Amino acid sequence: MQAPLPQDPMMLFSFINMKLRDEYPSLEELCEDMGLDQEQLKEQLLKAGFEYNAQANKFW
């Protein structure tokens, strides 16, 4: 069973970028593997001011 995602936007941003950097070649693969809704995650981080860049494979 997987631990819940951080609720704080800055912690979530950091956590997701760490996973993308260290474990997943794309946001799609991360979401599929972790059972996350990709659009919901992108929207949640966008509300905090972070946008996903597929070329860089990170939020910024």
Provide the descriptors you would attach to this structure in a database record.
mainly alpha; two-stranded antiparallel sheet; 3 helices; 53% helix
Explain what the structure shows.
There is one protein chain. The chain is mostly helical. The protein has one domain. It contains three helices and two strands. It has helices spanning 9-22, 27-34, 38-47; strands at residues 52-53, 58-59. The protein has a two-stranded antiparallel ribbon. β1 (52-53) and β2 form a beta hairpin. The chain is globular. It starts with 8 loop residues before the first helix and ends with a strand. The model has no long low-confidence stretch (mean pLDDT 95).
Number of domains: 1
Secondary-structure element pattern, one letter each: HHHEE
Q: Indicate the proportion of strand residues.
A: 5-15%
Please give the largest β-sheet.
2 strands, antiparallel
Largest sheet strand order? 1-2
Look at the structure and give the mean pLDDT. Answer: 95
Unreliable stretches, pLDDT < 50, 5 or more residues?
Answer: none
Total helix count?
3
Rg over CA atoms, rounded to whole Å, is 10 Å
What shape does the CA trace take? Answer: globular
Number of beta-strand segments? 2
Oligomer: single chain
* Structural class by secondary-structure content: mainly alpha
